[in-house]
VWFA domain-containing protein (Huiozyma naganishii), 966 residues
Amino acid sequence: MSEGDLAAGISSLSLDQTGPVPHNFKKHRRPNRAFHNLNSANPTLNDLPSFPGMPVHGRTSSWTGASQSASGSPFIQPQSFTPRQFDASQFPAPGSPYVGNGVPPSPGFNTASEQFMVPAGPGASTPTPNASFSPVYEESNYNTSHIIATQRWEEQLLYLQKMYQTIKDLNVPLPTTEFYCKDQSKCDPRFMSVSMYALPEDSHLRSATKLPIGLTVQPFAQTLPEEPVPIVKSITNMVLNDGSEDLKEPIRCMRCRTYLNPGFQIGYDGNACCNICNVKMKLSMEEFGNGVIDGQGGLDRLETSFGTVDFLVPRQYNATKDAAPLPLHYVFLIDTSLLANENGSSLAVVEAVRNSIEYISENQENCKIAIIAYDNKLKFYKLIPELESAQEYIVNDLQDVFLPFYNGLFTKPKDSMKVINDTLRKISDFIVADKYSQVPHACYGTALEAAKLALSTVTGGQGGKIVCSLNSLPTLGKGNLQLKKDDALKKHVKCDNEFYNQIADQLMRSYISLDLYVTGAGFIDMASVAKPVEKTSGMLRYYPHFRSDHDEFLLVNDMVSNIAKIVGYQGLLKVRCSAGLSVESYYMDAIDYSDREPMIPVLTKDTTVDVLFKYDEKLKAGKDMYYQTAMLYTDIHGVRKVRSINTSSRVSKNIREIFKYVNQTAVLRIMIKDIIRTLGNCDFPAIRKVIDDKLVDILTQYRALISGNSSSQLVLPDALRTLPMYMLSFEKSALMRPNMQSTRGNERIFDLMKYSMFDSAKLSFKLYPQIIPFHEMLEETDLMFYDTNERLLQVSPTTIPNLSVRDGHASLMNGGCYFVFDGTHIYLWFNENTNKMLLQDLLGIDPSLPTASITLAGGYLPECGTSINEKARNIVKYWSHITAQPTIPLILLRPNIDQYYSSTMTNILCEDKSMNLIEDYDNYLINLHRKIQERLAKDDFVKVSTSSGSSLGKGHEQFHQKFVQF
């Protein structure tokens, strides 16, 4: 097929194959978009996989023990779910054109019309005027769009009336969807989800999919309903010397040490069979007597009834031997060097520290804090409650740092708030008034050593959290850096400074995590100074060209939010899986992407780990495969726990089943993490080619082995229909931009760090920001909460086309008004042609105010009492819940006014052609299609046997899984 023919197909694309349909909403020019046709045969029920808890062959599942029908159907009709009472007449009746409990078919979906076939070669006939290049999406369980903006609304509408049931529902919701979930002895997918719920039986079959086998685990994800995780507590009759109860060890497999979970098979005689290693063990009478056999092969206990539980564990599980766990300790490091003082960032940090300490005092009352300021010296502050005013101790020795005092270094904020406020006032006075004593140097490396020494000394090596600000390149003390600019001589993005590699390793082994707030525009060699952040799973925030009027509220909000999301520390993570699979790699820099269990010094709601598996042997088709993540940690109050998270999948030898139940979110994360792991010298054109080739591999395999459509069409798996767009956006990210002049710039390293810091929801919004228009006509119930908990945002089916704005310049209307959410910030886009009455209702401003004079006090949306303002505040609350952020700052985004407009819009408009000539989305699909056609013409794909499912011919891979080789 020639590129001209494909381009002709795209250019003549039509969203309406049956003729014009009148609409009651205003339309504006949208970019050409490809659409798909569902006019293809679905597999029979017998072709579909069976899963734990699904009816199959009239037997009982080992996971749930539920009685199963003899029909063999793996489908169980979802029960109706209503978070609140509602009028059924609001929703379409069965058989209506709205699919999926009220989800309408997207524009361009016409399952009954004939599909135009793009000519297959140069000699083919000329396309007709209504021809369109139409990707076909197959195997759909429910009809959602291939356009990400539309897909998000459609799936959210689907889960208004439906509760996700972990046994019955096979397809994991999008990470950008809010949904109620019922734990049916498998965990909420927000805690852990695997990349394939129909697992290939061997590495040969896996190689035919070109997809990774792995999982994504977020142990402390925010769920719905917001119920606490069940706590399992087993005590003895003894009382310890400190008066506390003596805890017993949780029930675990004697061989592989798996924690008791719903997959264990337990008989009436007390014999238990581990679901991970299949080894039997005998439960003691005490263990067996605490539960009741439920009649289906399991004990009626919390840990055998829920997919996620917390075990309270005895002293043997403590991080430090013979030492009781402590509440979390914080050290605040404040950069008071001259450059930080001149741009106002040091005062903003002081205010952020004040707000953070107030939050700790109110919500983490057992935690303690310390404050240290630094420039060319270190300033320690004594915080004992008995003092009337702050006492400052100065240390000038930067090569051999020491603590000038011990008592009063740490304190509980509630006990010493008067002294703490006086300390912060004294630091502010130095910044504002003592100009002659200020120096342009910062001893950042020495300050980190001092904070580490303070935490290790006071806590006895139990760790803590360092919260640090930095404005300029460190030039004094340990870790001083001499490179004043990014000269592009170093092509890699790794830290090659010995001091920062060592201090990062020491902090991690001491259970100390670093959050770093960078407030300077100059080059600071972020690859080096932020190495401890990456190694210790901390947070990095960057405010280029810091301005107090714009960035102060962002910095304060970020620091308080990051502290509010902390749930524990001293974390050790272990993933176990059934025999036949084993962990090949944890995608974490702290352990060099190896299979060693990672240490996570401080845990937050955002902490997310991706894991890649490998085959040890061929698996048996139809067998249940179990996965358990055990997170040993200390909560912020000093209680030692193990969080046990359990899920399962089923082995299959049917390639159609395997593609049908792929989890795109886990696949996307693993692909991106593997690219980052193998960046090397950052030859980004070559890396982009490898990404494209990987997508071509996946889509060629699907097209060749499964699809029955004509070879002239681009065929995408239903489960992976938006993967090309997400990967294209990744190719256009700040990390992947040309590096001829700059290879280690602040923006590139900060973008690189985001992929290790972001959970699945933030990553999805980062790669494809969500745009919501306010100038469109909305119904009264649109953008209002459907449930009484105010978590499920509803829209009417007819409004979805209006609210689905693609991330392309052509989708933005001159004079429009939009919310744009990138996962961390909400931007309010408008220009001088936007209706001022709309802005008055939305922001409560004077309509006569010039566009350039409009401001937002504190970066928050004011409450105006108008309908559109209420809808906007609902959107903010909705995004806040999805991304687990207490507050999300609102930033104005106006063309020709805001200096950050150009760089921000470059990140947002990911469907457009980029500055470095990476193609737009439509042409990207055309190029993928052409390469797929070339592979098919050459018969260049991995073949599988229809009888056994084993791989044949080209592309054979050994049992040791090789996913992406860069």
Q: What stands out?
A: The domain at 665-755+924-952 is CATH 1.20.120.730 (Four Helix Bundle (Hemerythrin (Met), subunit A)).
